[in-house]
Amino acid sequence: MTELLVKNACVIDPLRGINAEMMDIAIRDGKIVEEVSDAAEVIDARGMLTMPGGVDSHTHICGTKVNFGRYMSPEDMRAGRTPRRGPLHATSGYSVPTTYGNSYRYSVMGYTTLLEGAMAPLEARHTHEEFIYTPLQDTMANTLFDGNWAIMEAIRDGDIKRVAAIIAWTLRAVKGFAVKLTNPGGTEAWQWGKNVSCIRDPVPYFEVTPAEIIRSIVEANELLGLPHSVHLHANNLGTPGNYTCTLGSLGLIPDLNEKRQTLYATHVQFHAYGGSGWKDFCSKSEPIARFVSMRPQIVMDMGQVMFGRTTTMTADGPMEFNLYRLHHEKWSNHDVELETGSGIIPVIYRRKNLVNSIMWAIGLELALLTKSPWQCLLTTDNPNGAPFVKYPEIVALLMSKKYRDAEFATIHPDTEARVPLPAIEREMDWYEIAVMTRAGQAKALGLQDLGKGHLAPGADADVAIYPLHIDEVDPSAEYQKVIDAFSRTEYTIKRGRVVARRGECLVDGSNATFWVRPKVSENYDMGKDPDFIEKFDRYYTVRMRNYPVQEEYLNRNRCIETEARI
Amino acid sequence: MIVKDAVCPFCGCLCDDIEVEVEDDRVVAVANACELGMTKFMGERRMKNPILRDGDRWKDITYDEAIRYAADALLSAERPLLYGWSGTHGEAQCVGVHMAELIHGVIDNTSSVCHGPSILAIQEVGHPGCTLGVVKNRADLVIYWGSNPIDAHPRHLSRYTRYAEGFFLENAFRDRKVIVVDIRKTETANIADEFVQIKPGGDYAVLSALRAIVQGKTDTIPRTVAGVTREQLIRVANLCKAAKFGAVYFGLGLTMTQGKYKNIRNAIELVSELSRHTKFTISAMRGHYNVYGSNEVNTWMTGYPFGIDYSRGIAFYNPGETTAVDILARKACDAALVVGSDPAAHFPRKCLEHLADIPVVQLDPYPNATTAFCNVQIPVAVTGVDAEGTAYRMDGVPIRTRKVLSTDYPSDREVLARMYALMQEALER
Question: Which of A94, A179, A315, B429 is the most exposed place for a label (fewest CB within 10 A)?
């Protein structure tokens, strides 16, 4: 039995409605408990800001495309490297760090739970292998279903239960956590070098539309009782005028779940563009934020862009090709049979570039214009908008109008006419930041009942203590102090153990992998469905028996069983 | 007993539909595999126990002694080289990386003498590729360039291209065109619809000519380019542009000839150019069954696919300096661990001269050319036969190899983990 007592913590714990109360946090064997014995080790937080460990509900850290981002970018690897030190391994990389690099840097910022944003089922084993080497965070993976042949056929046949059954079989096989749609239908069209322009375009051959894919899979997701909602990267990412497509996609979504949203729309900054081309490109954050604020069934994340060099990577292959034709940098693409695809290119977001400046403003606007912080979470779609190490700056920008104005003065001068940002006065408070970086993310992922995102007894003892006294710092004026504090915890506690202290990771760890296993009736077990098996055998190049990810690939196995209604 | 869906640990095709018949802990029959794969499964005359060089004789030693010897030799080296890795499972490769990091060594895999140039090209211009099943189901044009799958990847044609069924092809054999580009008429050229014979060293020029034609600059093309007629070049370019889905597979005939990584860069840029007209992909015909896995493992753990030098604590990558051939030729390393490869069969003489001068430990089930240079050889289980573990197919699809029989041999991972533990212990003291 190991016990730890964090004394004198200034706790913000939004899922329990706790806002800056001085309290002690008792921890036993990796869990939060009511109290501990006198023998417990004591940490005196001395009134410092203390929150549940950070949760990133959309980041790209592990798997085929992330690793290809590293593979093709030795220049990025050279841009951030540390030697082996004590229990810590060497790290490389800036925008796409090695797995240890990701894990240590997130830990130093107080993050303890990460969701990999896109895993191709066929290559799931790779994602899980990298999870094993991401030791200081619990991990889980969005699983891609945007171009799944069997699902598109079932949708064409109008059989939602079969859609659900295929999702259930696949999630169980690949140890996935949630359902991800990336440019639904577009990734299949891209395997012919084509794309879909928005939600009403039929997918070649399969003759279903993105709208039908989104609607059917949203319904199927709820039939399976999954903890997380469908996680959507909408069609038409990154193109001027795409906000109408985004509104159209969001408008498809009914309110089907009492506990959480029915749709998680990711990196919405990239989907909130006005204009008919790059010349009149402008922000459409206002209609999007207004629309989302009126619909509790939708949660989004920012996908904030920050200036500097980064690497873009997504399952959205056609989008990356378009980006390549704009940037003429190196371009990688990787289509995955019967399922999905991916693309990667490096980019630099420049302050002096008007489009980039507008993108920067849009992400902040979405957060500031959406009334409830529970509906707009803080992300950069790491590393697409910026590497996650920029999060502290984003926190500070959201909390300080003065900081925003100071930054605004340095960007392209024409930005002002294209965005509402300068007129927005809102400054977020500590509580709202806690929602946007952990509580809201845990709730949106459906992790709160699994002990994430809060500090109630029974929760996982994942705690972040930031070296900051909120009654002594005015975030509106002293934004540098906010950046410094959120960049480096005083303590990061993972599963009841101090894993990072003042910018240094202290131990090697072992993470837990969360995955779901929906229990379906015999009739809906795709493993016994003759048509499913026959097509699998004929068109995949991997045998069906060799496809499932074995339990050897799960460090600490957190299987979540759900009761499916099929 | 028959083991179904076994995974063949020979080439980068990583065929996973093999049926292996086992009797009394011996493989007695293999179905579905090519001849290369069958030989690998049936492999006999394994080394029985670890051996230590004793003057001009071999002495039998225990695993404990062998592992201790290896740990000591590598620990006392100033610049140890950890080489090979393509013929073992990913879990062993991971231990190898940690070991290199711990002892400040250099870790390199066989890519540095096969598709290293392809990786350098990808690092310059990227890689538009796809999984093999995408090609199987869609491609109506396949180009083999400087590769001869009938000899080197025998089932590539039947599983993924020429003879494979394809969802979007009514009659795959008839509807799919195959072009072979090579300097000689290979076996594969015999089954092609079009054979382009290039004069040795002419690949770069031919690729440039094709790019020019695709860009509409046909009038700049001379009557012949490296022995290929203008007419044929135009025909090939038109076939590419007319295809609904084209796939290029290139081999060492392109990476290891004059021009090296520039050839690959040119080929990738041709494919990027064609992607503006139709769908096109390009992929390397990777050799060892898990050479791609060694690139993947190295990349997520160190940031680089091969040739990583930890001598200054950080991961440092500079192919040509931190790659095995260069280090050996410069006599820069003073001990070597060889795992899952046979450098003595492939490396230049100068490198082998140095290998003969330094302590060398090899993990390999069989005696091979490198055995002659070893101080200690440790026989291990064969991944995919009597050990399981992860391998990455040439297209990046990871598959867990199966264990088809049980033996007492430890796996590479087990042996390496024990070595690593000894090293950690010694360094903590």
Answer: B429
